[in-house]
Amino acid sequence: MPGIHLSQLTKRYARGEAVVRGVSLTVEDGDFMCLLGPSGCGKTTILRMIAGLEQVSGGEIAIGGRYVDSAARGLFVPAEKRGLGLVFQSYALWPHMTVARNIDFGLRLAKLPTAEREARLVRVMERLRIAGLAERYPGQLSGGQQQRVALARALAVNPGVLLLDEPLSNLDATLRLQMREELSRLHREFGTTIVFVTHDQWEAMTLATRIAVMNGGEVQQVGSPDQIYGQPANRFVAGFIGSPPINMIATGTALADALAGLLGTALPRAAAIGLRPEGIMPMAEPGPGRIALDLRAVLPTGGGWIMELLHASVEGPTLLHAMTHQPPPWRAGQRLHAELRPEALHLFDATGQRIPADGQTPRADRPLAFTSLFRN
């Protein structure tokens, strides 16, 4: 399967405003790459440029070592000649065609022999578990079934690259979970290079082999899910990834000084300390290195409990959120004493960039990993 290389990719529209700014990114052969970020960050625009639905304003795109779009070379290969599969947020199924005709539509356009076309149709429908729906029409299908048909249509033509633009956003919570499992299985079985666009961190962290976190038209960090979570490159990545969000504590406060003591480092360059909620471990009794916190509230989430904790100091109370997957035995108003996992602490300078510090980077044998918490 081919890889994708983006070099200094830029996109401007009529007013001259750049929505993608100098993005360089490599999607390796067989990767499941997720473009993750808030609305308006440029992730869908990048996907559309890879697909050939938008032309670059600057930079180049190469797929499988072949340039398909280059402003400097004056080159643009149209979408239908790039050998890609594309599934939109809206599945765009033909309502007047049966499931079978929807799926083999691209095969008919490619003028494949009837025997090969039928063999591919049967194979892809069986692998996507929709063989019994062949004679139904899209209006007779559930949302999850429509999503499988759209994927089957894209996969039937044996694309080298599969592009997915928020394909799960129209599904309810149960179907989204089922389809995440389905996409993960399809990636393992087909080995297709996948580029997946989403604003949902859960989808990115549980599906992707690598993630490119985007903001303001730029890539903030590229890495595995555990790298993105355990070693965020800056304050934006640290705050965007994680639920509940990371606690940010300004330096120059009593709490920051206490955290610095745990890190065993001074804070001459740091402007803020980030503390992951699951790195706070409240206990009833005081002890060496524990920080006194008052429990303000316990919020059940269904799969866990969020604790609102207050740290009192001369600067005023600081609110912290802790996360646990065991029922807390305490009530609001109790004084607790928390141990903190040093690998859950992250330093950031005045520009928001991560500052490596002794004891701050997660140890290889004990990383604080988002996916290790939620992949069971």
From TrEMBL:
**Presence of keyword RNA-binding:** no
Provide this UniProt record's keywords sorted from A to Z: ATP-binding, Nucleotide-binding, Transport
The answer to whether the entry has keyword Zinc is no
Q: Name the Gene3D superfamilies for this protein.
A: 2.40.50.100, P-loop containing nucleotide triphosphate hydrolases
Q: Which domain of life is it from?
A: Bacteria
User: What InterPro entries is this protein classified in?
Assistant: AAA+_ATPase, ABC_transporter-like_ATP-bd, ABC_transporter-like_CS, ABC_transpr_MalK/UgpC-like, Mo/tungstate-bd_C_term_dom, P-loop_NTPase
Q: Which GO terms describe its cellular component?
A: ATP-binding cassette (ABC) transporter complex, substrate-binding subunit-containing
Write one Gene Ontology MF term. ATP binding
User: Domain named ABC transporter: which ranges?
Assistant: 4-241
The family assignment reads:
Belongs to the ABC transporter superfamily.
Protein name per UniProt: ATP-binding cassette domain-containing protein
